[in-house]
Amino acid sequence: MYLPAQTWPDLADYVESESESLAVVPLGSTEQHGPHLPEGTDHMIAEALARAATERTGHLCTPPISIGVSSHHRQFHGTMWVDAPVFRDYVENLSRNLTYHGIDRIVYVNAHGGNVAHLREVGRRLHEDETAYAIEWMWDESIPGLIEEVFETPGPHGGPKETAMIMHIANELVREDQLENARDGGVAFDGDTARVHGATTFYDAIENSPNGVFGDQTDATPEVGEQLFDAAAEQLVALLEWLDDQSFEALMPESHVDPQPGSGRGGL
């Protein structure tokens, strides 16, 4: 159920149902993804997966949040970002808005690594005051074995996995004549090269890749993209069904441990 397409009575029927108190919020970024992919890559992937999964489960899907924490890509034209505190506060306010309408559990369908820590922080805030149970989900982290199976050098950003996904979702936006340039002008990425004596020494993507991307983009195909999309959507459906089966009480924080076992003072 895609929220923007519904009337308010439709949504009233949804939240009035005791079994329907879950919402999905797709999030991504608008940032450089090399010479071959559109800047909307992340939020396009997130929205496509969120809508595919909620069409199967019947859960509520909000419009996407399309600008995230992306200042580490700012040297490349067109990258947009908001500062981390602003992003956290915006997502938290949006989430509390959903709870006003009867939602008590939220899945952030996220496709941008720069958002992860901040979404976890928002989820922690909502959990601590027992307002809602909100968790972050990244599509590629749900199918790591498949990604390793189909790509020799998947790359963490703008690589073949994202290229294949966009080939499946919106193939007309992929500059296929730039795939070799993306590969040759970027780097294959070895996590160890980004560390010196155990310390991460860079802050911006351009410090590791001249064109901002990693991996071998020529390995991507629409067929592989469909395989990745279907597998990730299946994982998301399973997560939504699992979360919907949990009682709200079971998702809330545990009580404080009893400082004197047997005293009955636990939870103080």
From TrEMBL:
The keyword Protein biosynthesis does not apply. GO terms for molecular function: hydrolase activity, acting on carbon-nitrogen (but not peptide) bonds, in linear amides; metal ion binding. InterPro entries: Creatininase-like_sf, Creatininase/forma_Hydrolase. GO terms for biological process: riboflavin biosynthetic process. Pfam families: Creatininase (PF02633). Its cofactor is Zn(2+). Transmembrane segments: none annotated. Keywords: Hydrolase, Metal-binding, Zinc. PANTHER family: 2-AMINO-5-FORMYLAMINO-6-RIBOSYLAMINOPYRIMIDIN-4(3H)-ONE 5'-MONOPHOSPHATE DEFORMYLASE, 3-DEHYDRO-SCYLLO-INOSOSE HYDROLASE. This is Creatininase.
